[in-house]
Amino acid sequence: MRRSLVTAAVLLALAGSLGAGPADASATDVPPLPDRLADTGGGSQLITAEAPDTGSTTGTVTWWERRGGRWAEAGSAPARFGANGLAEGTTREQGTNTTPTGLYDLPYAFGIEDAPTGTTYPYRKVNEDSWWCQDNDSVAYNRWVEPRPSHCRAAEAEHLVSYGTQYARALVIGFNYEQPVLGRGAGIFLHVNGRGATAGCVSVPADAMAEILAWAKPERRPHIAVGTSSGPTAITRY
């Protein structure tokens, strides 16, 4: 009787260890985030900006690159999103203080400060005449204007030099940029953190912004994917 009990206990222990093996392996065998996205834009560099849910104002920005045919993390930083969270980019409305979800290109960089050492991405320097037009009645809607034309009202535009902290350095996110839809939103950037949540942009600490600009290479066609961890705006959908 005693021998039977010992044998049974050994068999149960072996079964438990065998059963735990695959579960433990699968827990550490999750593909990197870019491999789980529906699209990465076709380049060999990618930035992901992920929030827990649409009501979140914080999350994580990670930049990735292809190495040896695989996606590898090149860096990561805490991120901030719109004061009212995130919203589906195809239906977002201007003035809602939401960050648009989706997959976007990164047309160029800009800043009040000089580009970080090693930057090869197109970089436009901000001066006193630099504005970003957000006027729905202007033909320059969602465009850098320099100087500001009369058809773009100052009250409906951002005087870029006025945002010394946020626009010290930034990347233009190609949301509603190629063929702008009036009322959809304008001036969505990846920029340096301000005091809190953004008006719809994605922001990161200054050192992370500098690192991203020195890392990004135009010939590698980087894109940015913005989304949530799950649900209709899950980053993996884009």
Structural features, described:
This protein is of the alpha/beta class. The chain contains 3 helices and 14 strands. It has helices spanning 2-27, 33-36, 206-215; strands spanning 45-51, 58-67, 70-80, 86-88, 99-105, 109-111, 123-125, 131-133, 143-145, 157-159, 170-172, 189-192, 202-204, 223-228. A 6-stranded mixed beta sheet has the order 3-2-1-14-5-4. It has a 5-stranded mixed beta sheet with strand order 7-6-11-12-13. β1 and β2 form a beta hairpin. It is globular. Mean pLDDT is 92; it is low at 1-27.
Overview features:
3 helices; alpha/beta; six-stranded mixed sheet; 238 residues; 17% helix
Structural class from helices and strands? alpha/beta
Helix and strand run = HHEEEEEEEEEEEEEHE
Q: Give the N-to-C terminal Cα separation.
A: 62 Å
Order of the strands making up the biggest sheet: 3-2-1-14-5-4
Measured as a percent range, the helix fraction is: 10-25%
- Which ranges are low-confidence, i.e. pLDDT below 50, for 5 or more consecutive residues? 1-27
What value does the Rg take, in angstroms? 23 Å
| Overall pLDDT level | 92
- Shape from CA axes? globular
Number of helices: 3
* Total DSSP E strands: 14
DSSP strand content: 25-35%
Major sheet characteristics: 6 strands, mixed
